[in-house]
């Protein structure tokens, strides 16, 4: 299988499954959707198109750091997520923007609601830019870039969960 | 206001208490605007953000919209971002370079030096109307120290250098990392709110007492990465290395710690990777050649969290961050944070600095979200300020001389100055 055999609905199924794992806090299972060299990035809101090597990001994890992030979030002493927030992800406008060998570039809009006791509703809106790799186990995430629409995080506060 | 004092400061009786109302009552914030912020030097920006004539950044400083800019002669200028006609903001872009600040409302325009140069239909103004009287206004005082620019709305304030007092030593330790003395604010700004009183972030920014419990998962991450995080035995320390806390005069204060967590300039730890070892050694060698062994060690082997009274924090640890914050309500602040690097650092060194920044700092880091959570938990608890009036702040008060970073002398230094300014007319 190569990227040209993957349809938009295959990608949608994959992204919906990923969203469900994250909303259900099944983070160890979510890790299995990532390639060994995966990256997870959120640029600062005033430099959405920048490169993490020369701009300050909000999150710029390599595969090792993603695992460390999940380990941290699985610990009840990750106080910002203990007790955990409830999240609900809506994913839409999924587009395959590029196919190259075994790799697909995918763009999708998101609307993520975060609810937590003692906190107001926090509504994160933006788009995902994925690089998905076709493997013999199915699609895997090689790159997961989250581009926020708000011009500042402002009342969204911290990004303590996996957005 | 009630008669109950803001602080009870009786070191001879081992008493230092903070009235919780100072962190919760909107009346206090109203008074802070005039007695603290309008009387102090307030951080505005770093010279590297406006490097060429016509460069500008717009931001809110001390509750006013300002244009931080460089004029046609190449000097840093700060303008109040309000048209002299009817007050509309003349610049609404966050940052950029411009020849003119054009007010779109009725079309007045100003040059890079703030002079009014264009007025549509000027002939309808009565005789005596002179454009020279309508330049963009500037704060009464503007001054800089080693690239850090401050403004003050207090025309009578002492000069910046005198105001900074002992804080200059700690700003020097940051600026001296650069071979040319020039540091650069790096692209990408972290702007996030915390639903807590602004003074809680002052305290938190250099409160090392909370590290073990609030940041347990960060310490675990450091440990998993091969960093030694056990405190040395027999010295009464809570943390892996010794640090001290102290006031620096005029309400500024610092914690000054022996590094254990790695430093881009210049102390390698395993998180940076084997291939970074050599370059970090080279950075250190340059420091030693330029500053001598002793001063190089001071720059490279200590982590320092500095509070410049009232609302500027410069943390020089896993990376250098400039952080400032502004209260929008007694229980709500807006935080802005930047990363600062040396002008000369290589592409790889810059990337390493930024990576190191994110392990700890920022709203997506492994530590800051838990600080935000802590501060919001404090603010929620503070709703009981009428029932439980006092907070305890006596750690280290019985010690003669030096106090630890996990003591509270540096916090008391901030609060004493705050109290002095807030009670000056009482
Ligand atoms: S308010 Fe600026 S031109 Fe009228
Ligand atoms: Fe902290």
Question: What can you tell me about this protein's structure?
Answer:
- The complex is a heterodimer of chains A (163) and B (426).
- By secondary structure, chain A is of the alpha+beta class.
- Chain A has a single domain, classed as Nuclear Transport Factor 2, Chain: A (Roll).
- Helix content of chain A is 20%, strand content 42%.
- Chain A contains three helices and six strands; from the N terminus they run ααββαββββ.
- Chain A has a six-stranded mixed beta sheet.
- Chain B is α+β, with helices and mostly antiparallel strands and 426 residues long.
- Chain B has eleven helices and 22 strands.
- In chain B, strands 13, 14, 15, 16, 17, 18, 19, 20 and 22 form a nine-stranded antiparallel beta sheet that branches. Chain B has a four-stranded antiparallel beta sheet with strand order 6-5-4-7, with no helix packed on it.
- In chain B, helix 7 crosses helix 8.
- The longest helix of chain B has 15 residues, at 277-291.
- Chain B is globular, with a radius of gyration of 23 Å.
- Chain B starts with 6 loop residues before the first strand and ends with a helix.
- Chain A binds chain B through residues 42-47, 50, 52-60, 65, 68-69, 71-72, 75, 77-81, 118-119, 151-160, and chain B through 94, 186-195, 213-214, 216-218, 220-221, 224-225, 334, 338-339, 347, 350-351, 354-355, 357-359, 362-364, 366, 368-370, 372-374, 376, 380.
- Bound molecules: FE2/S2 (inorganic) cluster and fe (ii) ion.
- FE2/S2 (inorganic) cluster binds at residues 83, 85-86, 88, 103, 105-108 of chain B.
- The site of FE2/S2 (inorganic) cluster has 9 residues of chain B, from loops.
């Amino acid at each position: 299988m190569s990227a040209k055999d993957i349809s938009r609905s295959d990608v949608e199924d994959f992204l919906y499954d990923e969203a469900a794992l994250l909303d259900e806090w099944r983070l160890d299972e979510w890790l299995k959707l990532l390639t060994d060299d995966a990256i997870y990035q959120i640029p600062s809101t005033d430099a959405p198109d920048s490169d993490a090597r020369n701009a300050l990001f909000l999150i710029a994890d390599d595969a090792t750091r993603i695992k460390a992030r999940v380990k941290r979030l699985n610990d009840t002493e990750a106080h910002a997520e203990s007790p955990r927030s409830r999240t609900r992800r809506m994913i839409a406008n999924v587009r395959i923007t590029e196919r190259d060998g075994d790799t697909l570039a995918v763009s999708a809009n998101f609307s993520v609601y975060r609810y937590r006791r003692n906190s107001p509703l926090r509504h994160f809106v933006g788009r995902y830019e994925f690089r998905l790799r076709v493997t013999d186990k199915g699609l895997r995430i090689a790159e997961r870039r989250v581009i926020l629409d708000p011009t500042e995080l402002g009342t969204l506060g911290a990004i303590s969960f996996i957005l | 206001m009630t008669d109950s004092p803001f602080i009870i400061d009786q070191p001879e009786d081992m008493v230092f208490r903070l009235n919780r109302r100072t962190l919760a009552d909107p009346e206090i914030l109203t008074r802070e605007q005039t007695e603290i912020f309008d009387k102090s030097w307030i951080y505005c920006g770093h010279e590297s953000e406006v490097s060429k004539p016509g460069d500008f950044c717009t931001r809110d400083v001390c509750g006013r919209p300002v244009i931080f800019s460089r004029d046609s002669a190449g000097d840093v200028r700060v303008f109040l971002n309000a048209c002299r006609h009817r007050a509309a903001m003349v610049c609404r872009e966050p940052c950029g370079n411009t020849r003119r600040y054009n007010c779109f409302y009725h079309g007045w325009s100003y040059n890079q030096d703030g002079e009014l140069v264009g007025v549509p239909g000027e002939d309808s103004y009565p005789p005596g109307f002179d454009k020279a009287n309508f330049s963009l206004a500037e704060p009464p005082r503007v001054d800089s120290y080693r690239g850090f620019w401050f403004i003050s709305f207090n025309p009578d304030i002492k000069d910046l250098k005198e105001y900074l007092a002992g804080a200059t030593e700690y700003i020097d330790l940051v600026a001296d990392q650069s071979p040319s003395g020039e540091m650069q604010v790096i692209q990408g700004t972290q702007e996030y709110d915390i639903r807590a009183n602004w003074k809680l972030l002052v305290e938190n920014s250099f409160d090392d007492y909370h590290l073990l419990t609030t940041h347990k998962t960060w310490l675990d991450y450091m440990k998993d990465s091969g960093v030694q995080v056990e405190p040395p035995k027999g010295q009464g320390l809570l943390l892996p290395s010794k640090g001290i806390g102290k006031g620096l005069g005029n309400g500024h204060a610092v914690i000054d710690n022996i590094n254990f967590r790695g430093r881009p300039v210049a102390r390698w730890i395993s998180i940076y990777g084997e291939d970074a070892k050599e370059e970090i050694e080279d950075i250190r060698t340059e420091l030693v050649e330029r500053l001598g062994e002793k001063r190089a060690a001071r720059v490279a082997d200590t982590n320092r969290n500095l509070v410049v009274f009232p609302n500027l924090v410069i943390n020089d640890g896993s990376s250098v961050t400039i952080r400032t914050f502004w209260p929008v309500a007694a229980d709500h602040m807006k935080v802005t944070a930047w990363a600062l690097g040396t002008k000369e650092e290589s592409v790889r060194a810059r990337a390493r600095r930024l990576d190191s920044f994110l392990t700890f700092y920022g709203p997506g880091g492994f530590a800051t979200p838990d600080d935000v959570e802590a501060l919001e938990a404090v603010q929620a608890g503070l709703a009981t300020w009428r029932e439980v009036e006092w907070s305890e702040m006596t750690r280290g008060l019985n010690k003669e001389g030096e106090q630890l970073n996990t003591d509270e002398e540096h916090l008391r230094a901030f609060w004493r100055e705050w109290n002095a300014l807030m009670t000056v007319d009482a």
